[in-house]
């Protein structure tokens, strides 16, 4: 149970910058504060840093980077900001969007130059809503590699980290200044640690069924594909301290988790010309609007499942992602030399799937308008051999949270700042607005990296002042 204790409790140990959470946001914040000359301690509830980052594809969107320039891609933060605002129907705070789109590119270049993270741009397919190739990933295109390399960078920098430390209580002064925390340990003991500044990097509330049911009722019973430790601690602590909260119904869903294997299937399978059908072999939506809003659409189908249909060409593109290779190894990808054979392998009605595939091909050739309004013109028809994966919809992480300023400093409802509290990643209100449809691919790691960088630098400045 997350609580705030208002007291003058003494602490035997006080650190200048304390970070709760060792996902991408927390580790970027810790590396930034350390670089700025502050002593940092990171507390992580798990035995090894993982978080939701490890469950993601590890792709960070950024505009105007050196990797884009090297690939001949013209892009700028202003264009990125416009894409975010368009996807979220002008709901997010424009100032926050400008802040994170301006900060994330330099943050990635810093991680590459100072800590050796070998980013490159995904330039063979474009994610929904992005007007340029701007997804940056590591060689395996996996979140596991991203979190492992960030952890290694923190260890190489000599940053102190205590794992198996579950923070349950924030200790605060009457004016809202956080004085320290209490963290439970596996043996039943507790660590009491004071701090001059505190960075909340413990994500959102996706793992808290009660909060999901309250704020995102349409996904109350959905598969949760985030970290179970995301219990809303930052949200609850912030509210208790008088922080402003915003867009709590905002979230990232995903309509393509291989089922029952539980492996994320890259949306390249759809964006490169694939489509989804239900158990009747029929399409049910415009899949290209975005994978986040597709989660609820898939869950509306019989048994909450669908099939993603694609071909060998698309499978080759998907093969750059470790998750897809894992899905193949797990037997989640079925094949067929004809559409009818694929239907048999997937236990779908052959006649219906053939009709659906023919209609999609006709739309791609420009012979008919797509029933669901998808722009198929110019997209290559699927060709044998064909592929299919049984998928379900899932909740990945929440996007609403604590409102922060341009330094990731948590604000109160009256516009003043909580004295020494910062938030990054899923703990902070993101840039996706109030619904799944507002989520632009990569928004989660965007605010993890950008706000993590800003929070670490600002907290270090305050701690040194």
UniProtKB/TrEMBL annotation:
Residues 17-434 form the FAD-dependent oxidoreductase 2 FAD-binding domain. GO terms for molecular function: oxidoreductase activity. Keywords: FAD, Flavoprotein, Membrane, Oxidoreductase, Transmembrane, Transmembrane helix. The chain crosses the membrane at residues 12-33. Its cofactor is FAD. The keyword Transmembrane applies. The keyword Protein transport does not apply. This is 3-ketosteroid dehydrogenase. It comes from Acuticoccus sediminis.
């Amino acid at each position: 149970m997350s609580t705030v204790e208002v007291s003058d409790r003494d602490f035997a140990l006080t650190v200048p910058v304390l970070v709760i959470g060792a996902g991408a946001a927390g580790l970027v914040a810790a590396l930034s504060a350390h670089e700025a000359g502050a002593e940092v301690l990171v507390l992580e509830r798990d035995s090894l840093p993982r978080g939701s980052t490890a469950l993601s594809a590890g792709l960070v969107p950024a505009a105007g980077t050196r990797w884009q320039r090297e690939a001949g891609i013209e892009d700028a933060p202003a264009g990125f900001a416009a894409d975010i605002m368009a996807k979220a129907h002008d709901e997010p705070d424009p100032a926050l969007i400008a802040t994170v789109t301006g900060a994330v590119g330099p943050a990635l270049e810093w991680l590459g130059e100072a800590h050796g993270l070998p980013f490159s741009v995904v330039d063979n397919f474009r994610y929904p809503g992005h007007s340029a190739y701007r997804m940056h990933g590591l060689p395996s295109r996996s979140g596991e590699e991203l979190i492992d390399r960030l952890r290694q960078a923190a260890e190489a920098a000599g940053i102190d980290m205590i794992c198996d430390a579950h923070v349950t209580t924030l200790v605060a002064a009457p004016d809202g200044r956080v004085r320290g925390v209490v963290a439970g340990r596996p043996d039943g003991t507790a660590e009491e640690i004071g701090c001059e500044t505190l960075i909340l990097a413990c994500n959102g509330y996706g793992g808290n069924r009660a909060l999901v049911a309250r704020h995102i009722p349409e996904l109350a019973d959905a598969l949760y594909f985030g970290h179970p430790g995301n219990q809303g601690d930052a949200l609850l602590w912030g509210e208790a301290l008088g922080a402003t909260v915003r867009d709590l119904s905002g979230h990232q869903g995903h309509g393509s988790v291989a089922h029952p294997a539980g492996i994320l299937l890259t949306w390249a399978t759809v964006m490169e010309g694939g489509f989804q059908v239900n158990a009747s072999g029929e399409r049910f939506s415009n899949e290209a609007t975005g994978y986040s809003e597709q989660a609820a659409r898939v869950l509306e189908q019989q048994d909450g499942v669908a099939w993603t249909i694609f071909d060998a060409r698309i499978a080759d593109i998907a093969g750059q992602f470790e998750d897809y290779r894992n899905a193949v190894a797990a037997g989640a990808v079925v094949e067929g030399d004809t559409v009818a054979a694929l239907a048999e392998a997937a236990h779908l009605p052959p006649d219906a799937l053939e009709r659906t595939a023919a209609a999609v091909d006709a739309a791609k050739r420009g012979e008919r308008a797509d029933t669901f309004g998808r722009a198929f013109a110019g997209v290559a028809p699927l060709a044998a051999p064909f592929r299919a994966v049984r998928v379900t919809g899932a909740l990945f992480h929440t996007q609403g949270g604590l409102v922060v300023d341009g330094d990731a400093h948590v604000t109160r409802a009256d516009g003043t700042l909580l004295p020494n509290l910062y938030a990054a990643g899923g703990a902070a209100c993101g840039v996706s607005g109030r619904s799944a449809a507002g989520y632009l691919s990569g928004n989660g790691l965007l605010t993890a990296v950008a706000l993590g960088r800003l929070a670490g630098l600002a907290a270090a400045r305050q701690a040194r002042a």
